[in-house]
Amino acid sequence: MPFAFELEYAKSNRSACKQCKEKIDKDAVRIGLKSVTELDADADPEARKKAHTMEATKWHHDSCFQRIKGVAWFKKNLPEEGAKGASGFDALKEEDQAKVEAIFAACRGEAAAAAEPASEEASTPPPGGKKRKADPAKAEGASTQKKSKFFADKASAPAESALSKDQQAAIEAAKAELSKKNLAALGMMLAKNGLPKSGKKEDLLERAAEAKALGVPPVCPTCDKAKLRFSKVNGTFSCPGFFDDEAKFFKKCKGPAADAELVRTPWQELGA
Predict the structure, then answer these.
(1) Which of 62, 152, 166, 181 has its CA 20 to 30 Å from the CA of residue 172?
(2) Are strands 236-238 and 146-147 parallel, antiparallel or unpaired?
(3) What does pTM read for this prediction?
């Protein structure tokens, strides 16, 4: 079954990422995936209804998109021309075009993805041979992100992860231990540590295992509202934003600042 890919700025903050289940901020770049069903001219109404349902676009954060499938799947299904072959590419700003091109390249296992607009300084061309503007210090939103205290040298980790082999092993060990817990128990454990408890069990398990193995991400020092989100791709933190109870709408946050001191805190067990 063929697949189609879409790129656009989120029209509101009501849509949720199909990978992490968190809301996608208004005006943030989001990446859509949908199945394309080919129907015969004489297809019955039921078949057309089913096809229409399957063709609904599933939206993702740009930083989550690489995790929805494996490299082999992306190599088989992504457009040969990369992000330029996705619908809506031409409508993006130049810096966002560079960002999604890097993400699509990373999905194919060709390069590490960048999740924030690139700077005006030219960087080393990606493996595809096409030059794009980027500041190495600002990969994955460096203007609003800070490297974790647990960030390991990329040379000691696989190309698709910023974590060391020991860190990855620790996460897998924690995941094996926590996998025995049910959805409700995982939710309570995450809540005790101030982390989001929404999503499927696999999402909660991934979130809890990372925090148990590496430590709980700190609260954003800029807004002092939300726990920071960690990217395993290049070891940086970003703020997911927060819902303002007084204003009654979701607010974006550009934290943490480049000079922010970020330290994870120990994981707390239930009953501790």
Answers:
(1) 62
(2) antiparallel
(3) 0.44
